[in-house]
Amino acid sequence: MVTLLHIDSSVLPGEASASRSVAAAFRTAWEEQHPEGTVIHRDLAANPIPHITAAAWSAGYTAPSERTPEQSAAFAAREKLIEELERADAVLIGAPMHNFSVPSTLKTWLDNVLLLGRTAGESPSAQGTPTVVVASRGGSYGPGTPREGFDFVQNYLEAVLHRTLGLDVDFIVPELTLAPRNPAMSELIPLYEASRKRAFEDATTKAKELAERLAA
User: Fold this and answer.
1) Annotation-wise, does 10 bind a ligand?
2) Domain Flavodoxin-like fold: where (predicted)?
C-alpha cells in the first residue's frame, strides 16, 4: 500500500482556504487511485508543532545512549515527524503565502524534519520522494507585476524541499485569491477564476499522473 503525507498549514478552514481546497482536490483524486492506501494528515494550524528547542536540535547530533532525558523526550517527537516523511511514497503540502513567505507553522515542521546526516546531506533519507506543493497567494508576483520579487515561498521551498531534503518537487500556484474579496482587485477576478480553475485541474491531473508513476 502506498502512503501519502498530507500537510496543511493555512489558518483558514475548508473552502475559505485556496491551498486547502486545491490540496483536497489532489487528495481526493489520489484516494480514488489508491483506495487501499494510507494518508497521514497533519493540520499544522489546528495542531501546531512546537518550535524546535535546543534539546530537540542537539539530540539530533548526539548518540542515543548519550542523550539526556530532556533530549530523548524532545527528539522522540521530532523523530516521529521525520519517520512520517521517510515512510511517505508521496508528499502533499499546502503552503499559502503569509506576509510574502510560508506560514510559521510550516517553517516549524521543516525545522523539525531537517536533520543533517539523515534527511539532509549527501544521501537524504527521503530523496526522490515526489512532492506537490500548493503555493497559493492573494496577489500575483510574477515578472512585470508591481510586487515582482516579493515571493519568498517558492524559492525558499525549492531550496529546502528539493536542494536540501532531496525531494522531487512540483508546484501548483493558485494566485489572486483576494480578488473576489478586495474591491481594489475586482478587475482581476477573471484572472483569479482562470488561475483557480487551472489549479484544480492541475491537482487532479498531477494526482493521477503520480499514482500511475508509483504503480509502474
Assistant:
1) yes
2) 4-164
Do the annotations mark residue 72 as ligand-binding?
A: no
Q: Which residue has the cell 474579496?
A: 181
Is 136 flagged in the annotation as binding?
yes
**Which residues lie closer than 8 Å to 183 by C-beta, 6 or more apart?**
none
Q: Is 19 labelled a binding residue?
A: yes
Per residue in 105-141, pLDDT tens?
999 999 999 999 999 999 999 999 999 999 999 999 9
**Rg of the chain, C-alpha, whole Å:** 18
Between 104-113 and 69-87, two packed helices, what is the crossing angle to 10 degrees? Answer: 100
Query: Which cell goes with 149?
Result: 520579487
Q: Which helix (H) or strand (E) holds 172?
A: strand 168-172
Cβ proximity of 24 and 199 under 8 Å: no
Beta strand pairing status for 3-8 and 90-94?
parallel
Q: Is 195 annotated as a binding residue?
A: no
Residue 212 has pLDDT above 90, yes or no: no
Distance in angstroms (rounded) separating the CA atoms of residues 143 and 28: 33
Residues 6+ positions from 46 with CB-CB distance below 8 Å: none
Give me the phi and psi of 11, to 5 degrees please. -80, -15
DSSP-assigned letters across all residues of 53-76: -HHHHHHTTS-GGG--HHHHHHHH
